[in-house]
Amino acid sequence: MRRRGAFAAAAAGILISLIALVSALAPLVAPYDPDRQELSASLAQPSAAHILGTDKLGRDLASRLAYGGRTTLLSALLVVALSTAAGTGLGLLAGYKGGWVDSLVSRVFDVLLAFPALLLALVVAAAFGRGIENAILSLSIVYVPMITRLVRSACLVERKLPYVEAGRALGYSSARIMFRHILPNVAPLLLVQVAIDFGYSILDLAAMSFLGLGVQPPASDWGAMLAEARDTLLVAPRLALAPGLAIMAVVVSFNLLGDALKERLERRPRS
Amino acid sequence: MRNYILRRLLQLVPVLFLSSVAIFGIVRLSPTDPAILLAGGRQSSPEVLAAIRAKYRLEDPLPRQYLSWIGAAVKGDLGESYRLKQSVSTLIAQRLPLTLQLILMSMVLSLGAAVPLGVVAAANRGRAADRAITAFALAALSSPVFLTGILGMLVFSYYLGWLPAFGAGIDFVDNLSHLLLPSIALALNMLALSLRVTRNGMIEALGSNYVQTAVAKGLPRRTVLMKHALRNALIPLSTIAGLQVGFLLTGTVLVEYTFGIGGIGSLLVNAIQSSDYPVIQGATLFVVASFLLVNLAVDLLYAAIDPRIRYS
Predict the structure, then answer these.
(1) Chain segment A127-158, per-residue pLDDT in tens
(2) Are B143 and A199 inside 8 Å of each other by CB?
(3) CA distance B93 to B192
(4) How many other CB atoms sit within 10 Å of the CB of residue B296?
(5) What pLDDT is stored for residue B40 in this prediction?
(6) SS3 of A22-60
């Protein structure tokens, strides 16, 4: 059972790396400019020239998939990085300092948690206008409370342990204790959350693009490609299948990775 | 118990108040001038814009605008849609039954599949059936709900022609077929969580002393599974109901949009796409309030389901 889990996690890691590599190297590996229209080749079937065929405007699907992956993965990376940085900082602060800082942070986030996450992101995006930057920003904001809550509760446990007291006795500053001593002990827990959030942010970003609030044409990501493919669903279902399966593959992989990390963490003896 | 309910209801007031401030604040932070939207987005003379600002009291300071909005909202008046020129409360009331039916059908389908599958997976722990069910749930969780919806539409509406692809029916019964595909898409999305909880609950129950005793007594395996283990395994399921509601509320937004169903979700998406601020504010406030109330109801239900939990 354990070996199977490790195998699945390894496979997931390899799959993510491969997709990330193709996306990162899109300008090198993509056979065409993703936005180049060739109306004479509209909805061409897969062939040697276009390995996955073309869309309604004659754009090469394989190239669009690679470039779309770039936008999708990079945006998800930004969402996770921004929300984890902010959430970790606030969580450590609230958990370590306690008192009014903790009350303030907890009360504000209680309100934010009263909103279903994607709904809040949609409202924020509606106010600040559509576009991938705003989608990234609004999703980053709505992901912060969950991470803060996680880090805060872990920090509450850690700060009662002798090593924190030792640090304080040695006269270390709060910042040093929080980031140099507590953070490394909270990090494994955080890593599990990061892996799972990565999957969720890809789903949420795809949803925002699908609703037309994320990436704007002619730029494209997997969610926007899915939305476009709806018009030609009957004649060319592959236009929807390709980005859809890409999303699924990445999200499944991140979930497997998160599960494997969690299992490892739970088995780890607590010193 | 009654005091407890009252106290919890009172605790909702500040959260709702702050949520309403947040909603109002976010929407009004928008760089777009509502007067221009009200004028229909066309180039309008300053006089026209001034008249609109005066009529909708957009020149008032924001706190006063907030107070008049929330004051009316408490009485059930959420303002008037910029685009549809209709009362937001009426719009919500018209669309609520459809969304409720969608939510209800998805819950029934999701639990109806998750509980038996969870029992089967736990009873065959580590074997092929367990692995297949777990893998299926993972795939369903990782598929965006609109992708599941589109694929279902393709197969069951276009290829097989069994179910309608778009829109809603004319009444509750007609909707049963119209909302079936959307509900399945939503149910699949939520399946993983309840399945995992049922499976873990069953595995724990199956390893416990009272189940061992039941097995040792020579009771049939079926009775042990269904009567002894399942009952206790179902309690944790109720604790995730609140999470499920959150899933459902955002899920309906996406599913209604995908299938062109005129419920609360598509009302909200259309409002967002056309910057119809009163509808965005009103519908969001309504959804958040429902979310909080359902979560409270779920909390209170624990006590009814599990006699070990008592609130004071």
Answers:
(1) 887 888 889 998 998 899 989 999 998 888 88
(2) no
(3) 32
(4) 16
(5) 67
(6) HHHCHHHHCCCCCCCCCHHHCCCCCCCCCCCCECCCCCE
Per CATH, the architecture of A2-25+61-255 is what?
Answer: Orthogonal Bundle (1.10)
Least confident segment among A118-127, B22-31, B237-246: B237-246
**CA-CA distance, A47 to A58, in Å (whole number)?**
13
CA distances from A103 to A97, B13, B22 (A): 10, 18, 18
Contact predicate A173/A100, CB 8 Å: no
Q: Do B269 and A247 touch (CB under 8 A)?
A: no
Tokens standing for residue B309? 């939990």
Extract the residue ranges of chain A whose pLDDT is less than 50: 1, 271
Q: Per-domain residue ranges for chain A?
A: 2-25+61-255
List of chain B residues whose C-beta atoms are within 8 Å of the C-beta of residue A229: 150
Distance CA A263, CA A218 (A): 42
Query: Which among A125, A126, A237 is the nearest to B154, CB-wise?
Result: A237
Within 8 A of B32 by CB-CB distance, chain A residues are 129
Q: At residue B59, what are phi and psi to the nearest 5 degrees?
A: -85, -15
E strands along B100-244, which residues?
none
pLDDT bracket for residue B45 (50, 70, 90): confident
Identify the closest residue of chain A to B159 by CA–CA distance.
A234
How many inter-chain contacts (A to B, CB under 8 Å) are there? 128
ipTM, 2 decimals?
Answer: 0.84
Question: What count of other Cβ atoms lies within 10 Å of the Cβ of residue A53?
Answer: 19
A63: Cβ–Cβ under 8 A, 6 or more apart, which residues?
A: A26, A30, A31, A32, A33, A34
Out of B141, B150, B247, name the one closest to residue A230 (CB): B150
Q: Which of A127, A207, A248 sits opposite B29 (nearest CB)?
A: A127
- The SS3 call for residue A250 is helix
- Contact at CB, B246 and A213, closer than 8 angstroms: no
Cβ under 8 Å to A: B residues 25-54: 26-32
Q: Span B250-275, mean pLDDT? A: 88
Looking at residue B42, its pLDDT comes to 63
Cβ–Cβ below 8 Å for B249 and A207: no
Q: What is the pTM of this model?
A: 0.87
Could you say which of B31, B32, B288 has the minimum Cβ distance to residue A115?
B288
Note whether A196 and A220 are within 8 A (CB).
no
